[in-house]
Amino acid sequence: GWDKETSQEEWQRVARELHEAFTDIGCAYLTNHGVPDDQVSRLLSSGMDFFSLDRNIKDQFAYNLETNSGFISGDREQIHDEELNEGFLVKTAEEELPDAEVPSFRSALISLIQSCKSLAIRVMAATALSLGREKEYFISMHRELGTEKGLTCLRVNHYPPVPDTVPQGITRFAAHSDFGTLTFLFQDDAGGLQVQDHDETWVDAVPLPGTVLVMVGDFLKFNSDG
């Protein structure tokens, strides 16, 4: 991975590659990212344990607008039409979590949140370099990264089986952009995610084992002149 021991030449190489990918399509696959596969697997497994609970139990941890955390069902959070998904959103591992129902959930969150924070700092530094700025340029805007005062969140998504008859207008997750700076996506092997390039063509973002898909958010687009 790229850290304080990484050479300046390596930082510049990563910066160039990120700039090319972010400019062309708005996302990039990261390798040697420093996020252990087992941390991702643990959280996905814990998430599935939660989503397999009865709906009345999941609703006890329903999304709280004030804390921006909790269980979200697709029939409550609609970007456009009804969506076949559910999720659990957290800002920090100190939130109210289903500790009794899924004891492994909190520890899995703590580990992955810390790893993602470290990765985010490095990606922001490389992105700043790619724009001819100091490494701290974007980092200085995110001093509260990973805290309750910050805007960062982690979301575990679940896509239930598709029913035999699907009404028109139903989708897994409607087309959207994320308002933040960066989005890290950890995909399973099911696939289905698509991203839109500058020609407004939808391109499959196929799952690649061992990689993290990083996507440009609206805030980064605004603060880099597009």
TrEMBL record:
Record carries keyword Metal-binding: yes
Keyword Iron attributed: yes
One Gene Ontology term of the molecular function aspect: metal ion binding
Entry-linked InterPro entries: DIOX_N, IPNS-like_FE2OG_OXY, IPNS-like_sf, Oxoglu/Fe-dep_dioxygenase_dom
Domain Fe2OG dioxygenase: residue ranges: 149-226
Superkingdom of the source species: Eukaryota
Short name of any one Pfam family annotated for the protein: DIOX_N
Entry keyword set: Iron, Metal-binding, Oxidoreductase
Matching PANTHER family: FI07970P-RELATED, OXIDOREDUCTASE, 2OG-FE II OXYGENASE FAMILY PROTEIN
Family that this chain belongs to: Belongs to the iron/ascorbate-dependent oxidoreductase family.
Name of this protein: Fe2OG dioxygenase domain-containing protein
Organism: Cherax quadricarinatus (Australian red claw crayfish)
